[in-house]
Amino acid sequence: MPSRKFADGEVVMGRWPGSVLYYEVQVTSYDDAAHLYTVKYKDGTELALKESDIRSQSSFKHRKSQSSSSSPSRRSSSRSRSRSRSPGRPAKGRRRSASQSREHKEDKKKTIQETSLALPVFVLFKPSENNTKRYNGEPESTEKNATSCIILEQKLKPDLEIKRVLEQYSLRSRKDDKKKEEIYSEKKTFVAVKPIEKVPTKTKEMEFGGRIGTFMLILFLPATVLYLLLMCKQDDPSLLNVPPLPALESLWDWRVFGVILLWFFLQAAFYLLPIGKVVEGLPLSSGRKLQYRINGFYAFILTAAAIGVLLYFQFELHDLYDHLVQFAVSAAAFSLALSIYLYIRSLKAPEEELAPGGNSGYFIYDFFTGHELNPRIGSFDLKYFCELRPGLIGWVVINLAMLLAEMKIHNLSVPSLSMILVNSFQLLYVVDALWNEEAVLTTMDITHDGFGFMLAFGDLVWVPFVYSLQAFYLVGHPTTITWPVAAAITVLNCIGYYIFRSANSQKNNFRRNPADPKLANLKFIPTATGKGLLVTGWWGFVRHPNYLGDIIMALAWSLPCGFNHILPYFYVIYFICLLVHREARDEHHCKQKYGLAWERYCQRVPYRIFPYIY
C-alpha cells in the first residue's frame, strides 16, 4: 500500500476539478481505502482529490517561476542576437523575428489568462447544471439574475473561439509542446478517473445519535405508532391515561397481513404500467442519471376507481376502523422485512451505489439510515416507489374509512364538518404531491438518504397511520365547530398551501430552466457547484419557505379536532421537530457543498423557517 505523502493540516496546491489550474488548499483528511485526500479551498468548498492532483507549494512555485523567467530571457537573447546578425542572413533573421512575434503575442495572452484565472473571479456558468467544473467567487457582484448568464455567454463566445484557434495553431518550441502534452495527458487522466473521485467514502459524521440513537429509534418508532393508536381508542385520551397493552394475539391477523401485501403489490402493478412520462433524476456520483416513470397521479385515479367499485358492491370499508391497530402492526412487520432485504442486498452493491450518509461500517446505523442509495429490481426503483405510492395513497384510503366509520357509529347521514375539513385538507395535500411527483427527485430523501428502515418504516407505516391520526381521533371523539370557525381554518390552510406550493414551484422552475423569462426578476448567488442560491421571492424571505407552509397546513389539520386533548396536535408538534431537524441537516450539507456562497446566502436571508423568530 503506498504511503501517504501529505499530512492533515498541510497547506498545498490542489487542482480544481476539470481544469489545469491549481489553488491553495488545506488537507483535512485522507481516506486509506479510496486513496483520496479531502481538501478545503479558501472559499470553504471541500473536495476529494487524488494525490496526483496535489502539489507542494514549493514545487509549484518553482515550476511557475522557472517558466516565467525562461521565456523572457530567451526572447531577450534572441532579440540581441537578431540585432547583431550580419546583413548576409536577413531572411533567417526575419523568419525568426516572425516566430518570436507570434511567441511573444501568445505568451502575453497566456500570461493575461493565467493572471485572470488566478484571481477569485466568477466564471460563466449555467445554474441549472450540477457540476463542479467551474469556480465561482466573484467579490464585486455576488448576485445575478437568470438572464445575465445568457448575455455573458454570448459576449464571451468570440473570445473562447479565438482562444481555441490560438491553441490549435500556436508556434512553440518542442519543449513547450511537450509540457503542454504532459498537462493535457494529466487532464485526460483526471477526467477518466473522475467517477473515482466521487466514490462515497466511509460516513464519518453519524446523525440521529449514532449507533445508540438509531437502535433506540428502531424500537421507539413502532412503539410510538402503537401508543398513539391505542390512545385514540380510549374514551379519555389524555397523556396521563396510559392505555393498557392489548393481548399479543389481538395485534396480529394473517388476513390483515395479506391485505397489506395485496395493497403493496397492487400499487407496484400500477407503478409498472407504461403510462406517464419518463424523466431523468439528478446525476449520481458516477455521472449516470437514473430514469423514473412519473405516473403517481394515474395510480391514484386507478385506486380511487377500485375503491369506488368496492363501495358500489357494498364493501364495508368502515371496518378498517376496528382493525386499524392490526393493520399498523402488519405494515410495521412488512417494513421490517423489507428493511432486512434491503440491507442484505446492499452488501453486494458497488461502492459508487452506496448512500453517502449510510456507509459507516456499523450494522445498526447503516440498517437504519439505508446502506444503498437507489436499490432497484430491474427498472423498479424501490425507494422512489415507496416514497409516494403505498403510504401516501393509503393515507387517503384510511381517512375515507374513518369518515364512513363516523357516519355509521354516530348514525349520521352526512359526515361532520370537522371530518370533512380534515379529509379535504389532507386530500388536497396528497393530490398535490402526486401531481407534482417529479419534484420529489430533488429532495434529500432521493438524492442523499439511503433506503433503509428509516424511510421504509416512515413511508409504509408512519405516514398512513400517524398522518391520519386526526380522522381516527374524530371517530371516537366527535367535535362540533361552527361555520365561521370552519371558514377561518380553511383560510389558514389555503395560506399554508399557497406558501408551500408557490415556494416549491419557484424553486423547481428555477432549477429546471433558470433562463426562463418569467424568472428574469429573480436574483441568485452563484456557487462553486454551478447552482444558484435564490435570494429573492419566497427564498429571500426565509431559507425554507416550503417548511413554513407545511407547518401552517399541519396546524390547520389539527384545529378541527378542538382543544379538549393534545393528542390530535401530536402531528403538528412532531412535524415542527422533524422540519427543524431536517433544516439543520440541510444547513450542514449546504455549508459543506457551497462553502462561502452559503455563508453569503445566510447573511442575506438570516431566518431559517419562521420569519423574525427562527
UniProtKB/TrEMBL annotation:
- Provide the protein's localization: Cytoplasm; Endoplasmic reticulum membrane; Nucleus inner membrane
Transmembrane regions listed in the UniProt entry: 212-231, 251-273, 294-313, 325-344, 455-475, 481-500, 521-542, 562-581
Which cellular component terms (GO) are annotated to the entry?
endoplasmic reticulum membrane; nuclear inner membrane
Catalysed reaction equations from the record: 4,4-dimethyl-5alpha-cholesta-8,24-dien-3beta-ol + NADP(+) = 4,4-dimethyl-5alpha-cholesta-8,14,24-trien-3beta-ol + NADPH + H(+); 4,4-dimethyl-8,14-cholestadien-3beta-ol + NADPH + H(+) = 4,4-dimethyl-5alpha-cholest-8-en-3beta-ol + NADP(+); 5alpha-cholest-8,14-dien-3beta-ol + NADPH + H(+) = 5alpha-cholest-8-en-3beta-ol + NADP(+)
- Compositional bias per record (Basic residues), positions renumbered to this chain: 76-97
Domain Tudor stretches: 4-62
Q: What is its EC number?
A: 1.3.1.70
Q: Per its UniProt record, what CDD domains does this chain match?
A: Tudor_LBR
What are the recorded GO MF terms, alphabetically? Delta14-sterol reductase activity; DNA binding
Pathway noted in the entry = Steroid biosynthesis; cholesterol biosynthesis
Any single GO BP term: cholesterol biosynthetic process
Q: Which domain of life is it from?
A: Eukaryota
Coiled coil region boundaries: none
Provide the residue span(s) of the region labelled Disordered. 53-112
Name of one Pfam family that matches: ERG4_ERG24
Stated membrane topology is: Multi-pass membrane protein
Which regions are flagged for Basic and acidic residues bias? 101-112
Q: Which UniProt keywords apply?
A: Cholesterol biosynthesis, Cholesterol metabolism, Cytoplasm, DNA-binding, Endoplasmic reticulum, Lipid biosynthesis, Lipid metabolism, Membrane, Nucleus, Oxidoreductase, Phosphoprotein, Receptor, Steroid biosynthesis, Steroid metabolism, Sterol biosynthesis, Sterol metabolism, Transmembrane, Transmembrane helix
Q: Which residues fall in a compositionally biased region of kind Low complexity? A: 66-75
The record ties this protein, via InterPro entries, to: ERG24_DHCR-like, Lamin-B_rcpt_of_tudor, Sterol_reductase_CS, Tudor
Query: Would you identify the family this protein belongs to, as annotated?
Result: Belongs to the ERG4/ERG24 family.
- Please identify the protein, giving its name as recorded: Delta(14)-sterol reductase LBR
Its lineage reads: Eukaryota, Metazoa, Chordata, Craniata, Vertebrata
